[in-house]
Structure formats: structure tokens, C-alpha cells
Amino acid sequence: MSILINQVSQIYKNGYKALDNVSMEIGNGVCGLLGHNGAGKTTLMRIISTLLIPTEGSIEICDIPLKQKNYDDIRRLIGYLPQELEPYKELTVKETLEYLGRISGIPKTQINERIEFVLEKTNLVEHYNKKNKQLSGGMKRRVGLAQAMLNNPKILIIDEPTSGLDPEERIKIRNMLSELGEHCSVLFSTHVVEDLAATSNSLCILTKGKVNYLGTVQDLLHTTQELSYETTVKSEGEVQLIASDYQIVNKIHTLDGIRVQFVSRKQPSIPCISRETTLEDAYIIVNKYERL
Ligand SMILES: Nc1ncnc2c1ncn2[C@@H]1O[C@H](COP(=O)(O)OP(=O)(O)OP(=O)(O)O)[C@@H](O)[C@H]1O
């Protein structure tokens, strides 16, 4: 089970280059796609999910070339949760899944069994009879995940599964992704760095349409270690001075003053101490300094 992406670029009709020569391989397990707003995450996911034809480059999904003549075969392998999925308001969760299962060609004899399975996997069993309009944001994302899993896909493409969810729901969804990653390849996009630390074996950071980092979370932390510092100052004015030379990642008000955590590629010229690099630091370092 793998996705092989080779020198893919996407230029939209208005001339905007949303992806610039992206190459990567996504294997088994969970791969997180991280990047700022507009970095190109959704564009890449839509291409892999056969919804957009790339301007340049080639992709293979489980050894099948991503070409229009193979779209039906590829769609059978993929489950996709788009960023915005508004399930039909008046249908119940079960009716929604029945309908989507039918139109995605799941045989009638298997549909109930699949629905029971995905409802259980997404903790929706007790809500199956609720209308979509009665669901919370987190439940709606879980219905989205359930529909993406309906056809027993080998590859799951999940666009921002945790956006707008409270911490408890985010943890539930993260746990689901980890579990799913044991049986198929999961590619999910997020802005939330903690989502990655909790779920991903591998990580791709996109910056302005380019792959800026590709590797494991551990390797990223390793590469960026010793670039994180902190110092304590007395006033906001001093914080601003630090901000003019360094990238501040966190500011904590303490009894002693304002503890400023920042990253720097070079040994800082202000009094400060080293601190352990967090994944958030590493992400900021990669985005700020681009290629490591
Ligand atoms: N149909 C389109 N026509 C022109 N430009 C587009 C189109 N769709 C997306 N873009 C642009 O391409 C860039 C990448 O968009 P994309 O939605 O892939 O980013 P993203 O990383 O998913 O962002 P977000 O995190 O905000 O969802 C953005 O600058 C966006 O404005």
C-alpha cells in the first residue's frame, strides 16, 4: 500500500502555482501533512483522490498510475474526507451511510455489515439514528470519517479531521487515525502540531507548495534540536526587542517576569538558556528557515 508522488506541480487556471515539484512516498501507517493556510495540502489531497488532474508530474497509487482511465480502480482503493463535508441535514447518520454506500457501489449484501463496522470504529453506534442536523461538529467529522471508511479503503485521505474540534474530540479522532493506520495508509492534513506528535509515523511539511521536510517526527526533532532557547525579561518592550532578532514561539507570564521561548539557528547573542525542542519549535524552524 503506497502512494508514489513524482515531481507533481499544480498551476490553477489563474496562473497560481499551488504545488511546485512535489515528490514523496507515502507508505503504511499514518502520514501527517502539515502546512500553513494555502500551503497546498488540499490541492495535493484532491489530486490523490482523483478530483483534480495535476498540471505536471505523475502519481502511482498501489502500483496503479493515477491516470483518468484508472480512476475507477483507484477510487475503489481510496476513502476521502474532504475539508468541508456537510452531510444531508434531514437524513439520519445510518441513512447517510446507506445512501453513500449505495452510490459508491458497495454490494447490497455487504452494506449493513460495513455500516455496523464503521459506526463502531467511529464511536457513533449510539448516534446512528440522529439526524445530521442534530450532530455536533465532532460527530459530523466522525460521520465524515465513517463514510471515508465505508468501502474498506486501502488508503485514507483525510483533510483536516480535527479542525474546529474541542480537545476531547481531537483526541478521539487522533486515536481513530492511529488505529486506522495499523490497517491502511492514512494521509491527513492539519495545522495542529500536536495532532502529528500523537499519531504520525511520518510527516511532510509543505511550505508555499514545496516539500520542506519529509521524514519521521523523531528525525525532525533530532535535526532541529539545540535550536530552542528561553530567557526571562521584565517588560513587553524587551520582548519586542527579542522578536526583532529571533522567532518567538511562546511567551509565559511568571512571577519572575515574562519567560520568552524562541528559536534561533545561530547561538543567540542575548543571555538565555537552551531548552528541549518541541515539535512546534521544529515546525516553526522548518517554515522560517525553509530547507534544513
Ligand atoms: N481553484 C483554485 N483556483 C486558484 N487558486 C486556488 C484554487 N484552489 C486553491 N487555490 C490556491 O492554491 C493555494 C493552495 O490552496 P490549498 O487549499 O491547497 O491550501 P491548504 O494548504 O489546503 O490551505 P488550508 O490549510 O487553508 O486549507 C492557495 O493559495 C489557494 O488560494
Automatic annotation (TrEMBL):
GO terms for molecular function: ATP binding; ATP hydrolysis activity. InterPro entries: AAA+_ATPase (IPR003593), ABC_transporter-like_ATP-bd (IPR003439), ABC_transporter-like_CS (IPR017871), P-loop_NTPase (IPR027417). Signal peptide: none annotated. Residues 3-233 form the ABC transporter domain. PROSITE patterns: ABC_TRANSPORTER_1, ABC_TRANSPORTER_2. It comes from the Bacteria. This is ABC transporter ATP-binding protein.
